Amino acid sequence: MPAIHDSDSFSIGGVAARTGLSVHALRFYERENLMVSPVQRTSGGRRIYTQTDVDWLTICTKLRASGMPLASLQTFADLVRQGPGNEHQRLDLLRSHQARVQAQLDALTECLDLITWKVAVYEEHVATDTAEGLWDPAATSAADARDQRTAS
User: pLDDT digits over 61-116, tens only?
Assistant: First the structure.
């Protein structure tokens, strides 16, 4: 196999630096068949990655960071490797993941709203040196807390 030596080829360390993945993780991605094309090697056996590999790994990193299970990522990689003709399957997989991520974002937004409200309550408390607006969670229901938040 010919060695690749040009400005669009990278060592495993260079890819690690570009993607934020460790060298160990890059080997894992290759071993788990997550790459869309075989990683080339020099005559000495060192891995040589292309810009396409780096771009693909960037996609994989974002999908994993967003919570995509490894099995789904493997399925997606397999579909991409198969080439044109399975775009509906890829779309279904990505839409399903998108819905999970959106649900997580919605839940986190609700949490952030509550935290923002509590910060405002405590800022007011600190600014006025009063306990007005503070509540005892043991004595107040979550519904009461939501009512207080929406009233302000």
Answer: 999 999 999 999 999 999 999 999 999 999 999 999 999 999 999 999 999 999 99
Q: Are residues 117 and 77 in the same domain?
A: no
- The total of structural domains in the chain comes to 2
Burial 56-92 (b: 16+ CB within 10 A, else e): bbeebeebbeeebeeebbeebbebeeeeeeeeeeeee
Token duo for residue 13: 């360390």
- Residues 134, 64 share a domain: no
Q: Choose among 97, 76, 98, 96: nearest CA to 87.
A: 76
Alpha helices for 32-86 (secondary structure H): 51-65, 70-82
Both 77 and 134 in a single domain?
no
Q: Quick one: which of 59, 57, 94, 100 has its CA closest to 75?
A: 94
Structural domain containing residue 7? 1-83
| 75 and 115 share one domain | no
- What is this structure's pTM? 0.74
Which is more confidently placed, 130 or 49? 49
